[in-house]
Amino acid sequence: xxxxxxxxxxxxxxxxxxxxxxxxxxxxxxxxxxxxxxxxxxxxxxxxxxxxxxxxxxxxxxxxxxxxxxxxxxxxxxxxxxxxxxxxxxxxxxxxxxxxxxxxxxxxxxxxxxxxxxxxxxxxxxxxxxxxxxxxxxxxxxxxxxxxxxxxxxxxxxxxxxxxxxxxxxxxxxxxxxxxxxxxxxxxxxxxxxxxxxxxxxxxxxxxxxxxxxxxxxxxxxxxxxxxxxxxxxxxxxxxxxxxxxxxxxxxxxxxxxxxxxxxxxxxxxxxxxxxxxxxxxxxxxxxxxxxxxxxxxxxxxxxxxxxxxxxxxxxxxxxxxxxxxxxxxxxxxx
Length: 335
What we know:
- 13% of the residues lie in helices and 36% in strands.
- Strands 2-3-6-11-7-10-9-8 form an 8-stranded mixed beta sheet. Strands 15, 16, 19, 20, 21, 24, 25 and 29 form an 8-stranded mixed beta sheet that branches.
- The protein has 6 helices and 29 strands.
- It folds into 2 domains: 5-144, Cathepsin D, subunit A, domain 1, CATH 2.40.70; 156-333, Cathepsin D, subunit A, domain 1.
- The chain is mainly beta.
- The chain is globular.
- It comes from Arenimonas fontis.
- This is Aspartyl protease.
- Keywords: Signal.
């Protein structure tokens, strides 16, 4: 018998996920200002979905769901009620994989525009969960891989994930180590780390105030340590606007990731406890910040969630300022 639209949405979403389980899947992606956006099409309309390995939910704009007439269900999350819809059936040849079913049964939360980074939807850590993702920043492509085959010349970094009492991963936020100024710092691998530029910072990047840009994050304690030790490192006062807060930004000349040193890398200052305390409740260990687009843009990164490993290949692995090989094992623990 003919399928109703809601049933067709659910069936095709499941079919899309199943059909992508045995092949590499190039995704409709745009790399803009060191951020990664997916641009699938729905009924001929291109949507913009912000991707964020450090984000906590998967969501779509309420207006889109209501206009499409999707069935809306209100569920109790244990922390309040949340309106959700089935994962949509995108246009053939212009879709993206469905998220794993273990979070909200693969459904999307409904969100207002202010929570979607100016886009139509949001895909967080639980969308990336269980997959093998090839972020090629220099080429501007994102591919879901069928197997974790490291790029030739890449170096591997172990990823840590919080697990519950049964050994199941919780938020799927990956931690890893970087080295700055001879100091090893645990951080979140965060493709969505974002600064909202201000009158002070936008001209430096050739952009406009209130534009977004992918950056990296660092807690205040480490930020202050860098400023004291390196007064020559460039600092932008009030460079990143977070609601009513104005935060500093710092340009770090060199960051070592997986034995490769790249730079410069811009970090936005984060309040004390933002990662050491708050994010620590959702990760396998306390971290000092996040490594985001301002550093990842120098790499092709294969993130293997099942194997808990990330493979990094610099744009110039032969070795100049964007791909120098160093011994990353001599750093001391951050603190």
